[in-house]
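Quick one, probably user error.
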């Protein structure tokens, strides 16, 4: 029954969706994504606590394809209105990179400024519309969210469209997983650890 549900979810994956960058190796990655969606469907979702004080940074990838001249201002107002419903949250700044698609992080100056503010304890919650706004490379996003969550003042990222909060309790074990490090970078650690036996 569970396998049939996974197969059904695989069929529902739209390759042109915002997750298309995850589906390079269609069969293996789509199976992993379907299993993750199944797992997410079975748990109670966690979102940023609206009663906890947060210093909020809004990250926007802006490319106006609409007829509205002031679309960016309308987009910012939507975020400001939403944050005003959370009296303990403080809007620090908007970080807007322009372009039709997300670059790699090193080519996104406003994302870099946002990360700098996070490292300097000015931001502890990043709100953005979707994962693909930040980078084309899922590894960059994964490593970045782990680094931010491991700071002495943990910083969470909330992806609105995907309803993913990187500081949710069910992601905490993943934050300490060394699996994202290249094997060669673990070699000196393994040698040091074995020499202490």
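Nope, works fine. Designed sequence:
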């Amino acid at each position: 029954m569970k396998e049939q549900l996974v197969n059904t979810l695989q069929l529902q994956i739209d390759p042109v969706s915002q997750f298309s960058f995850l589906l390079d190796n269609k069969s293996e990655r789509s199976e992993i994504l379907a299993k993750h969606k199944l797992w997410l469907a079975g748990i109670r979702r966690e979102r940023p606590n609206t009663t906890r004080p947060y210093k909020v940074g809004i990250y926007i990838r802006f490319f106006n394809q609409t007829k509205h001249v002031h679309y960016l201002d309308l987009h910012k107002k939507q975020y400001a209105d939403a944050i005003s419903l959370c009296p303990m949250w403080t809007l620090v700044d908007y970080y807007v990179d322009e372009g039709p698609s997300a670059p790699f992080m090193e080519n996104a100056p406003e994302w870099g400024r946002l990360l700098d503010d996070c490292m300097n304890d000015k931001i502890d919650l990043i709100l953005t519309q979707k994962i693909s706004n930040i980078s084309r490379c899922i590894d960059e996003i994964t490593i970045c969210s782990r680094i931010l969550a491991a700071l002495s003042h943990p910083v969470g990222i909330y992806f609105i469209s995907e309803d993913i909060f990187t500081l949710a309790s069910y992601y905490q074990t993943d934050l300490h997983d060394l699996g994202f490090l290249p094997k060669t970078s673990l070699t000196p650690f393994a040698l040091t650890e074995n020499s202490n036996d």
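Confidence is low (pLDDT under 50) at residues 4-23, 180-197.
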